[in-house]
Amino acid sequence: MKLLLDTHILLWAAANPKKIKPAMRKLIEDESNTLFFSAASIWEIVIKNRLGRDDFQVDPRIFRNALLDNGYQEVPITTEHVLFVHDLPPLHQDPFDRILVAQSSIEGMPLLSVDPAVIDYGGTVITDQ
Predict the structure, then answer these.
(1) CATH number of the domain that 114 lies in?
(2) In this structure, are residues 42 and 63 in contact, taking their beta carbons and an 8 Å threshold?
(3) For the chain, which end, N or C, has fewer CB atoms within 10 Å of the first or last residue's CB respectively?
């Protein structure tokens, strides 16, 4: 199965996998699954790292390379994704999370997230709750 990981799940998987509940961690560790990350997650890390956020203290270039080196595949942001965001209900205002929901829907891969506002979109979102 193809799985798109949201930004916090990516960061936790790399630095502190025990933060991820066992059922979701099992999905991530299952070698039959293909793991994806969004260009939006790297963009979010860049912005929040520059703002000094404690939970984003990682070098985005090194992090991206590590993801690729560990078999993750990158999902670029396309205009199709952006236009899908336009039609999403206003359940969540975070632009990074909204583009991840759009990418998940368009690319037909579940989005792994623990963000309650993202989970409200339902559909292809997998949560650890």
Answers:
(1) 3.40.50.1010
(2) yes
(3) C
- CA quadruple 39, 68, 37, 16: dihedral sign: negative
Determine contact, residues 28/71, Cβ cutoff 8 Å.
no
CA 13 to each of CA 21, 60, 77, 78: distance values in angstroms, whole numbers, following the listed order:
11, 15, 22, 26
For 102, other C-beta atoms within 10 Å of its C-beta total 25
Instruction: Say if residue 129's pLDDT is above 70.
Output: no
What is the domain count for the chain? 1
Q: In the structure encoding, which two tokens stand for residue 62, read together?
A: 């090194």
Host domain of residue 114: 2-126
**Are 125 and 117 within 8 A, CB to CB?**
no
- d(C-alpha 85, C-alpha 90), whole Å: 10
- Give the tens place of pLDDT for each residue, 69-101: 999 999 999 999 999 999 998 887 899 999 999
Structural contact between residues 8 and 100, judged by C-beta atoms closer than 8 angstroms: no
Please give the model's pTM, rounded to 2 decimal places: 0.92
